Records
---
Amino acid sequence: MFLNHNWSKICGEIFCPNNQWNDLSSMKYTLLLFSLLQFFPSFGIVKPAKLFSDNMVLQRDAPIPVWGTANPEEKIIVKLESSEMKITAKPDGTWMVYLPKHAAGGPFQLVIEGQNRISFSNVLIGDVWFASGQSNMEHPVNGWDRIPYSAINNSKEAIADSKYPEIRLFSVPKYPSPVELKDLSAGKWEMANPESVAGFSAIGWFFAKELHQKLKVPIGIIHSSWGGTPIQTWMSRESLEAFKDSVKLPPVPASFDQNVWTKKITSSLEKTRMRRMQISYPPKDLPWLVAQRVLRDATWKTVNILEKDNHFGNVVWLRRKLDIPATNSRQPLQLSLGYQTWQSQIFLNGKEIGYFQYPKPVIVKLPQNFVRTGENILTIRIAQPWVDAQCFGRSEQFFLSNSDRSFYCDLSKDWQANSSLESIIGKVEEYQNNPAFLYNGMVAPCMPYGMKGIIWYQGESDAGRPLLYKQQFQKLITDWRASWKNKDMSFLFFQVSTFPQSHESAKKEDPWKKLREAQQAACTLPKTGMVMTIDIGDQLDIHPKNKQEFAHRLVMKLP
């Protein structure tokens, strides 16, 4: 660590006026410098942007941008293989160089020197792609911890076959911001292996893997997505000015303390995660307690579970006694409970017999001798993160019967309900849907890192405004290309898949049809391509689990 001349002078003026340095012992001088460096933790240090780390992939066959911060007017040298570029930091401490084009290869070292020296090892040169959008791009290989049974198809095999040292993964941390940031909040490149791939974007991973096998060059994927987000949060504030009559832009803060903001975001993310986990998973012993009917207090009330005016809250328990004759308890039975939104777990005598996610109909086939003769306790736990939990369907869709219906039990009535058995964290203030917030914190800091192209899967959250989306989507593409200083950057995107069928599906037109038309209009822009998915989606799951097929079609879309 070194001090430049100006800061040494400041040290003297602040801590030792009149240049009385000789009066200080060397020990005191050392302590003084140490104290000063603690007070100014970034002082005197060349810092590249967080996108630069060991194991990174840099874009081949194009000038390579490298940037960061340093002392104002500090002399900086950037070296990669035989290339070397020199730059002087601007008065605000920022700097950027463009290294010459390199062919695919490596590993190399990237060295950055100023008053300090940073060396990044195991650097490869190949093709880099930016993967962005909402939940179908975010969908991890091993699923979300907050959504039970959400792993993609054959996830264990996919994770086991993931050791590809020339594929590198970078996960952009979730970080909405009211102002445009110059750097990411954190992050590092990781080599593809079972540990790094398990929680990574499934589409991003399968795309990278197939592309690497096809092109035989290193592949880097920068993943920056967030489930449930509208397109406006991914657009720059400047690009949104054209839509100010349709989009309410939040005011730009007069002052911005990023440390304070980071604490607020960290708290929001953690509380949201805890809330979703509480909603998705009941306390360990609660299903057993409900089934033993030991919870007989006044908080249980008799309800018609199909009553539209039910207000159950985010989590409700429903239970009902079943009297099964001996002859029927030895037969295979079918249980049907209509539709339940959004997540439902079905228990019989305290044992889970099914998990369902709306709009999948709740139907369970009970094997022979599964129920017991006499009294059985059927319980349902319905969890809904956003609004009240509810049951839907027609009364005839709620029953227990044998195959020929000689035994039939109507389950549309005589239920007890309790929505106070679990304490759930209240709704947490979230920021990710605010216009431009994710662009500010999760896209802009990645610019202008060298890219081959962008892959995009988003649109479900904008299904209700297709005409506006048509304009905004094209604006996002042109704006991102301009900000990346790469008008020829490929932009490939997924058509929103089949709309999940619901209990009302026969009564309404597919609301995603017009959105697909809005998406297709973007194909008029050069170097864009839309991946058809309508035939491979899942009508009963908004997050299709066959992400391998989605990624394969994406690779096939490449020229």
Note: Confidence is low (pLDDT under 50) at residues 1-43.
---
Amino acid sequence: MRQILSHFQGFEIKRHLLPAIVLGVGWGFFVNGYWLVDVFPAGSKSLLFLTILAGLIGILVYCLLFQWIKKALSGLSNVQKAELAGLSLFTGVFLFFTVTDRWQEPDRYIDLFLPTHTLEVSIPPDGGTDAVSILWISTSLGDVSYSTVGHDGWNVIKDRLVLTNLSDNHLRWEGKTGQEIQLVFETPSQTGYAVITWDGHEEILQFSRKKNSHVHAFEIPFYASREWMLLLGILNFSFLSFPLCFLVFRKRVEIFRAVQHSLVVDTRQTVVRDWVLVMVLMVLAFVLRAPGLENLFPSVEEYSHLNAAKQIIQGAPIQGVYQRSMWLVTLPITLMFRMFGYELWAARLLGVIFNVLAVVPLYFIARRLGRPVAFLSVLLYATSPWVIAMSRVVREYAYYPFYYYWIVYGMIVFLERIPDRFHIDRDWKTALTSKQILLVLGLALPPLYALSLDTLSTFKLILIAYAVLGLFTFLKLDFRYRGNLPAVIAMALAILMSAYLWWERFPVKLTVNLVPLDYFFLNSSQQWYFDRAAIIPLLGFWGTMIVGIVIRRINIIPVFLLALYGGFLGFFMFSSNRFFAPRHLSTAELWYVILMAIGCYLIWIFLQTFPLPGSRRTWIFTIVILGGLAFNFQHSLLPIISRDSLMPITGDYHNDLTELQTFMLANVKDGDVLICSRIYGRYVEWVDEPDFQTIYDFQVQTMESDVFSIVDQYESGWIIIDDARIERTSFSPQNAFLNDDRMEYIGLFDDEHVWRWGVK
């Protein structure tokens, strides 16, 4: 601290005032468009005052910062200054795009520089209509309040502007719009038109339907645009990152030595006390997963495995039931059902057990990075809200950590047995030992399973790890040695051929989708740092990326894990899948756990380079404070205490069918049939009640004629369709059933609409 304060002695304000004013004012503009406009109306006095205040604070901070930077850079060479500037820039960019999230929103502007536009609207009396109303006026900055609209011949009635005088009417509004403005008119007839004038330029909107929308786009000056605001954000974050980067840069020798000593490949045998601690953490993991397994109804996909396991026990052939993840999930569940009966908790408990057992291979992987990283990895895995939530569903995602960690552990052992700068003619014996051959045969089994036995499962995502393994094996070769040339060519061709076969079997259209980043950065509800100071763990993650590259020749595991994480995350970022759910990306979390553990340990190493006064209690207090600021441990309890139908961590909807089932049990009669969408139908199959004569599946593509052909065959029955399918059907069930005298609409239960026919 004294070293930092010493830089402010002899403060020279004049020399640094001009750049401080420029950057301070830029900070004020950035704060205006990035945060304040979400709280205060555009053009308001409060917004202007806070923008000026932010600018003044920015000027003061930059004056102090420039004085400090001047003394900090003295004695550094130009190369070192350039390295430090580059490090600050990259750190600023990383923090800006991971700690903040407003950059994802397209309608971001610097309010002070937005131009003001004038809107005028009139309805000519010769248009043939006198019943016109404006439902809303909306701009890119938000809805326009009718109190700010001047009007003659119009009145505000029930949240809309209604035309009251056709012969003499006029609307006028002046304000800032952003990129576009939208007006929505409603007329009972398809006649008439509106004259809309923007800044003196007249446009005509014909009323061709009941609701008529008019959208007008405006040019945004660059100095008020989203792009300029983002540049200001990156610039400010880079400058503000400089002090931290400088401290790291000054301590780089000490940090590098500590990292070399701590993250060297550790293959020492695990002692008893280590296993005791691992067992304690496994108990913690189980305690955070096992309670309240029946708090939530099964999700739609869970019913598939539950019912398939039930059918197998009742004598159905394996080939005739739901096939996805048959060997990973369904068949193991049948064993639980045979022991405990058809209980939901028993099926979910098995996934919890497998998920907890994944701690063992995780520990073996992270143990090669040292004991601290190993225990941190296990702790983060045990408390990860995302992993906990996924472990409590009857799906393959609960089991993947166990299998994926063992597979990757085998890959790491395989890579470690291949010497760097491998020469084919000299080192081939080391690659063909009996242990290595057995390991290769073992690693060959998962791809065979994914591509042959379980082709419907997402288990095939493990092939991404095999692609990374192939790349790292390829990089083990000594490319300067001519004797390796045939092997280099052969392996390069093999990699290209594998990529081609992947493309042929799983074709994807390359696109860019940044949604997957939301699950790992920003304020992600899937992570430990939800609603906490995410900047602390994310700085550690940033350090992991840098250190992993720097020490790749000392320990290849960090960069290998980075490649795994990048491969799994990149697959979803650049694939054509338009829909993402947390379950799709949960496998990437497996590598993120270890990388985050490395990052936490790097923060600890960095802090230890500063001599803190006091005893061991000071370090304990520091850890507790940082942990409390960065990690939301209470959030880890959400999966076991939540009873909301929509689980916020997994994004799955667990339809609560209690009320519907109670009603159906009291009203279903013998001989009734059921036409239903898959949620309630699968639930009835799971609980074996009510006893319907027949159950027909209602799908999105089901036609109106299909439903009535079933209704015509039976005297009585029920139709139950959820909201999601009603919105996507090719016909309107409400209108179709309303016009049939046989149908009676019972009501809405949660999101299930219920009809019945044949009531006497």
Note: The radius of gyration is 32 Å.
---
Amino acid sequence: MKYLSTVLSIMFLFLLASLSAQTYVIDEFDSAATDAHYQTNVEGVPSYMELTDNLTDYVSGEGALDVNYVIGEFHGWGSYANLIYRTDSTETMDWSISDSLSIWIKVRNAPTYPEYMVFRIHIADRPNPDDDIEEYIYENALTLDAQTDWFELKVPLIERETDGSIIPNDEGFVLFPNSWGGGTYNNRMLDRDKIIGYNLSAVVSGWDPDKNLPADSVQISYDHFTRYGSRAVPFVIFNGMTVPKLWNMWSWGQSSIALEEGAGATEGTNALKWVQGDEYGNGWTGFGFDVVPSTGLLGSWMTDSVKFKMKAQSGTGTLRMQFESGDDGKVGITFDPIADDAWHNYALALRDMVYQDGTANFDTAAVNKVGIMAEASGVAGNVIYIDDWWTGNPSFDVVPPKAPTGLSVAPGDYYNLVIWEDAAGETGETYNVYASSEPITDLASAKVEPVALGVEEGAQSAYHKIYYPLKDKNVSNYYAVICQDAAGNRSTLATTGPVTNLAKAMATISLNPPSNFAADGDPSEWYASGIMPYEFKASTSHWAIGLFDDDNDLSANAFIAVDADNIYFAFDVIDDVYSYDPEGDWWQDDVVEVYLGLYHSIAKHSSFERGEEPDYKFEFLSNAFIHEFRQGGYQLYQNETENYRFLDYGASDYVIEAKIPLDSVKFGDDVRFNAVNGMRIPMDIIFHDADNTVNVRDGALSFSDFNNDNSYQSPVNWGYTWVGDTALVVGIKDKPVNV
């Protein structure tokens, strides 16, 4: 058995060594010339680029990409031509575990003046979808100098330190220098797990204007772009404050595991409290986590340790730390804790872990469970605390910031200005502002609404526009502000109120649709019914995006009503130019978009939900009404039917009317909407404006003040409206008021 164990350990280490050298393909360039993810970008005219798929001369796969860089306008600081790759929308690439890049290059025609031309690779990252993109640059001065056959360029995937003034070279990647100008930035750290693309660039730099040299060019072929090598990536199990939110915590053998606030090894931090059980009387018991499968241990297993702090009660016996990658992949290591009820540091070498339970296929790149168990030593009721549990040397802040101070409210015309002083001792923090009709003690309360999220350091104020259904009325609000530091820790609440001020009349979703409604493109019955419209015009509405000349550029009245069976819409639009291209993207034309949450709510969803609180997106096009979320874009009604009508007036103005049965709106497990007077529901209405016929949007007006062309991402960006003529001050479930 000892011989077999030795053989298995040797096989395990051999497998780890093999995995550590794993190569991942970034692009084979088999059909890159027609790949929409690739763009070209040149400086000045007559600079240009040509992309051609080469299916005869390549290194790997089925082809290569030929790129002709022609750089025709020069500045003293350099001129460029970029081949740019970007992922789709919010998609990111994770390059965390690789320490090098490799790309095969063939210089088919070298530059005329190679001493002035360099080759660059830019890496672009974006930690969050709303962040700016920042770029890190590698530069090689010799790669393009002469005509070559295929050769492999190996690039160290290293982030060079910089104070903002360090320029690129071939030692690694450095942040786009501040002195160059034109750069955008987010957190000024290379987020290897949030890569959104790269550039392959030819750049003329250090030009001597006295020589008056002509334009230069270079023809290059690219193939087999990969990342490889192994890099140790910290794997954080517990950071002293919280467990990653997507992980599931479990226990067995009658053990219990819980997060105990204030019990951490460092003052002000938390700890995991493990109370042992002994269900079967044999001392086997434990706890652990289902973790999001991670490649993070691949590069560190041979050289790193799992580190943690533990405070064990007297009588605690031998324990086992275990990692798993499936039913046939369990490895662990035993240790004897110091059982003196005091905190101690531990470090267990990962490479010393051995197979458990007869398994033989542990994969360091797919760890999905981690835990600690008592090896026949558990004592029912024995208490053990665990803190700061990770591999590597992660750098993070787990101490909450101080609360903002000096919170006050200055009433204005239909708004309250919330004012505070930033938290002391913080840099790069943001502030969230909330309001409620009741004192705020819990931000999870259904009666708390977000007023402003992510207010930057130094702003120290936020506007809260206040409304009431159909009429001006005095309303009272309580306010709260929290500080969120750069590491994501949140302060305690700073609160104030109540503050009473006059709220502005807002149009609502009427409970009395026009009795003679017909979806015929004639909105006269809406005006005759006295229903208050939502008004849109550049001088008063929120601009989601773009520019408007004046109110004549685009203005509109929007009406919405509901009864027991249907929801009704009417849009009366004045537009200086009407444009619609059925072959292009619909949002680049003159169209209307509506987002609705058909449920009563003060708080906002962070994502689109179904069930009891379903969120919807509707598109009102010239040819059809689209229920986008249903079956991935479901056309409910075509134009000129009983339920839907788009009518233009022969020039630029148009009207849209629709009657949509509520039974056709719900799908999946959605609860069917039943309107109640006083409901407050999430909503946004967007009028897109295109003043030409080439499918190019000039701008958009939105109902929501939070919409910066991003309502499609989350209901957090929507506004709200009411149903009927009153505002409920209690929840629907507390006091139902049927129509």
Note: DSSP finds three helices and 45 strands in the chain.
